[in-house]
Specification:
single chain; 329 residues; alpha/beta; eight-stranded mixed beta sheet; 12 helices; 42% helix
């Protein structure tokens, strides 16, 4: 075969075979063995060695620079079109999905998960935000389909509920909105309430099929979760099974449970093909929680319970980092 030497690269090649396992450091051995010729006939070994040393040095220097800059907090993610986001711009960005990147969210995120749709009342989340504010923690919430920061809010229900948007589009939209919030708004914690439920309850009650929880789990991984559950005659085994379901199906931990004073009326729900609840006295819920004798199960109808869970969440988030604590900000 006729071999050709590339003057710039020093690599010999033939029309039928060319071996250049350069980065593994075995280029010369492989090439001379496979095509059976002497080094000095077709290869400029000094040129290859020089290029190899230079390339390796550049890679090592680049990696060292990268590690130093990353440690100093420099962001290498490319700028996204929503980096100058503010609440007034929500109508302009909610349908833009040209950027096919999922960005890591570096601000702590709290998921509020409803096991069943139409279970949660907004007062609890509002009180939770107030407690965080009392602890000098600035929160940004995406709850009940609204983005809320301080006293301003914008409706983004169209992302969760828009049947014209694919699941993929919803994931990109929500992830980019969260990244934009992180880049442009001074906040310590993002609270996200997941609409609807965690999965089908029966053949007639779809409970949202758990689609929104799947979307949220792909948008970002939560640092902490509160799981809202209706009242039932739970055993400890039932609670453990629910934890396992969320972990195995959605890769989401269950840090805290909030038992709500609503019990599913199954017969009526089957007949109406949507979940129907019976509202109970809070004392019934309190008694059930006490009988379970398990940690991290709350009745967040009580203000002191909201205070307690707020402090627990702060403690949990502080344990994740050696940086300045959220409480001191």
């Amino acid at each position: 075969a006729e071999y050709t030497l590339d003057a710039e690269t020093g690599i010999a090649s033939s029309p039928t075979e060319r071996t250049a396992n350069f980065f593994k450091g075995i280029f010369l051995d492989n090439l001379s063995t496979k095509v059976n010729f002497k080094n000095n006939e077709c290869i400029d070994a000094d040129l290859i060695k020089k290029r190899y040393i230079t390339t390796r040095k550049n890679i090592e220097d680049t990696f060292k620079d990268y590690c130093v800059l990353k440690e100093l907090g420099y962001g290498f993610e490319k700028d996204i079109i929503r980096k100058n986001y503010n609440l007034e711009d929500i109508d302009n960005i909610k349908n833009i999905i040209d950027d096919k990147t999922i960005y890591s969210i570096d601000i702590p995120v709290l998921f509020i998960i409803n096991t069943c749709e139409n279970l949660q009342e907004n007062n609890f989340i509002k009180e939770l935000q107030n407690q965080f504010n009392n602890q000098k923690i600035k929160t940004f919430s995406l709850c009940n389909g609204y983005l809320t920061y301080k006293n301003d809010s914008k409706d983004i229900k169209c992302i969760w509920d828009n049947e014209m948007l694919s699941v993929e589009s919803k994931i990109y939209n929500l992830n980019h909105i969260l990244k934009s919030i992180e880049n442009s708004i001074d906040t310590d914690l993002i609270i996200i309430e997941i609409p609807k439920g965690i999965g089908r309850l029966s053949n007639k009650i779809n409970n949202g099929f758990g689609i929104n929880l799947f979307i949220a789990s792909e948008v970002t991984s939560p640092d902490c979760t509160i799981v809202n559950i209706p009242y039932e005659d739970y055993s400890k085994k039932d609670i453990v099974s629910l934890k396992s379901l969320l972990k195995n199906k959605y890769s989401i931990p269950s840090d805290y449970f909030n038992m709500i004073n609503k019990k599913i009326c199954l017969d009526d729900s089957e007949r109406l093909e949507k979940i129907n609840y019976l509202t109970l006295d809070n004392e019934i819920v309190d008694h059930k929680i006490k009988s379970l004798n398990m940690i991290n199960i709350y009745n967040l109808k009580h203000k002191n319970e909201i205070e307690n869970i707020t402090l627990k969440i702060i403690e949990q988030l502080q344990s994740y980092t050696n940086k300045e604590s959220l409480e001191e900000k």
